[in-house]
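Morning. Coffee machine broken again, so started the prediction first thing and wrote up yesterday's gels while waiting. Chain of 270 residues, entered below exactly as on the submission form.
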Amino acid sequence: MTDVKYSPAPAEPPPSYETASRPTNATPSKLLPLRVPLPLDLPALNAIRGKRVILASASPQRRQLLAQVGLTKLEIIPSTVPEAFSKSLSPFEYVLQTATQKATTVYGAEVNNEALGEPALVIAADTVVVSSMGQILEKPRSEAEHITMLKNLRASGLHKVFTGVAVMAPLESARDPGYALETIVEETTVRFDKNISDDLILAYVKTREGADKAGGYGIQGIGAILVERIEGSYDNVVGLPLRATLNLIEKVLDHDDELEDEFSNAFDDQ
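Came back before lunch.
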């Protein structure tokens, strides 16, 4: 199990807005460390704190994004099933099916874990970069391919990033199939700066930051210098649309309540 390094919130109450807005006379050497925000107080997140929450991905970027909403005690269990879906699928279908496969595979492997118990939540995601010609871009396989990939993205100007997210949770009821599954696909348009030079592309490639990333760049790092603007979710380009993922968590954990309402309504109609 891998935990994201995340300092606990301080025990003392947060400062008032009036106090926080007052100018400080402290010298730079005496400035207090940055304050860690208090955890989000949401019913869905409170319901899974202290329980098994699995991220079916080895991506450190996704771990860091989930830590921002307070999900820090994550088990990292990547899916070992090969991603063998055809690239002839639309990008939407490709990431949706891949994310769903990751989630169901890991959930199926862990649901009967006698030592740790069934997971309270499994989160899986898949992100692809799609060129203006509709080609799904993989991770670059060599330095030469990496350079060509970035030059093509520069030349085309616009490209799209699709992330499929799948979230699963067990149902307390005996309703088949015994779990709830919710999915979503987020799309973001990215425009590369057409004026970036070949020297800058080569210098970026040599940092190796984008060597393990689809599309060959990381917008959350040095790769931001290649990007002119985006339309849509920034964290979707990083690898996990946080707002959409939080919505899925709330929906999947609400399934038992929805089933109870359906049962009560059916009973009342008889």
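Residues 91-110 form the longest helix (20 residues). Going to sketch it on the whiteboard this afternoon.
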